[in-house]
Amino acid sequence: MIAACSHSISGRLSRKLAIVTMLMLALLFSGAWLSVKMLMKEKNYEELQFRGNVIAQILALELKNGGEQACLSRVRADAPMRANTRLELWRADGQPFYADPSVGSHAMSEHIRSVDFDIEAPQLAGGLLKARYTVDFSADAKFGRNWMVVFVVITLLAGAMVWAGSRWHVRRALRPLNELAAQTRAISARRLDQRLSLADPAEELLPWVEQFNALMQRLEGAVAQLEGFNADVAHELRTPLAALIGHTEVALSRERPAEALRDTLLSNLEEAQRLAALVNDMLFLSQADRGATARRGPTASLAALAAQVVEFHEALIEEAGLTVRIEGDAQAAVDEPLVKRALANLLGNAIRFAQRGSCVAVCIAPDAAEQVRVEVRNAGEPIAPQHLERLFDRFFRVDAARPDSQSHHGLGLAIVAAIARMHAGRPLAASEGGSTRVGFTLVAH
């Protein structure tokens, strides 16, 4: 059971995009703000130096032309024009000459910048004035703080806009998923023929749609095969069961001698044995379908195994007027009983359909890397291509009208295919030019 999720793809993507956007803008604006701050510091320092030089020149000129009083008068006259500044002058002996009251004597802000310089004053004792020009750049700092607030607001607004826009866009882009979910809900056991489709599928969704449709195709085929298998099993079981019931009912309908009852029991025994063989074959195929693998023994000669199978079928071969030869050989570590069973099914099938007086060949040869090909070839009527495709299906008979078709329930070649898969191989079938070849491959070890 899938646990309920507390988040959505659109929500997660939109949040991540918004966070990334805000981080990028924060880095960008922080870099810009720090750069502007450094530039403003350099600009303020240069301006402070420039103002100090101008003041030094003006006061030197005033001292030269008008003396000490003219200098003081000029300084006092310019004081109202120097907002957020302070000018201090000392005589050469350290005595105060002038203190500018424009910013007061109280402590100024942390954004104070000062520059010290000397003013040539030959008229005064010591020949110079020492000066300190101080400027409070709090206004510039406030301007920088205001811009920082603007940057923060822009970053938050941009993040909110990206979140809303990306959420809308992602939800719109995920609409095909909702459509696919609705189409999937419409598929049921009675509607396995339904397939997923999109009018304009995205490149990322197309492989999922194709794989799901392929899965549904396989599932539909498996269900159809299972339904057919159930019908075939019912059909195969119905005949012997009907014979058993009929024979038993006839035997019980009136008094019969012991010999007649014995014949009835023998007939029932044959039908029961046929049922047991059918059930055993179905159990074997069921185990193979569940992934059972062959129990490999020591390396053996496949030609020797084929010779044993041919020897066991000598009576049938002579009765059919056939000859059998074994071509080639290969050494392989296989499950000998299973391989002999597969060879027996192939040989029995060839004996049934081979032309009288012809030769049946058991061909053994290497097929590919670490694989061996085992085929039984017989001369006879060719098998139509549409029948070749179903040759290894369960309960399939190429010619169900043959007189002996009821004695063969159609699982022989299906068992051959299962034994091939249990040896990591595959079944093979071909029919052309009056020659039919049926067999399998297996991995040698």
What does this structure look like?
It is a single chain. This protein is rod-shaped. By secondary structure, the protein is α+β, with helices and mostly antiparallel strands. It starts with 8 loop residues before the first helix and ends with a strand. Strand 10 (427-432) and strand 11 form a beta hairpin. A five-stranded mixed β-sheet has the order 6-8-9-11-10. A four-stranded antiparallel β-sheet has the order 2-1-4-3, covered by helices on one side. A two-stranded antiparallel ribbon has the order 5-7. The chain contains ten helices and eleven strands.
Estimate the helix proportion, in percent: 55-70%
SSE succession: HEEEEHHHHEHHEEHEEHHEE
Q: How many E-type strands?
A: 11
Structural class: alpha+beta
Strand content: 15-25%
Write a short abstract of this structure.
The chain is α+β, with helices and mostly antiparallel strands and 445 residues long. The chain has ten helices and eleven strands.
List the helices and strands and how they pair.
Layout: H1 9-78, E1 85-91, E2 96-99, E3 112-120, E4 128-136, H2 138-173, H3 175-185, H4 206-253, H5 258-289, E5 299-301, H6 302-312, H7 314-319, E6 323-327, E7 331-333, H8 336-353, E8 359-366, E9 371-379, H9 385-388, H10 412-422, E10 427-432, E11 435-443
Parallel strand pairs: 6-8
Antiparallel strand pairs: 1-2, 1-4, 3-4, 5-7, 8-9, 9-11, 10-11
Helix pairs in contact: 1-2, 4-5, 5-10, 6-8, 8-10
Task: Write out key terms for the chains shown.
10 helices; 16% strand; 4-stranded antiparallel β-sheet; alpha+beta; 445 residues
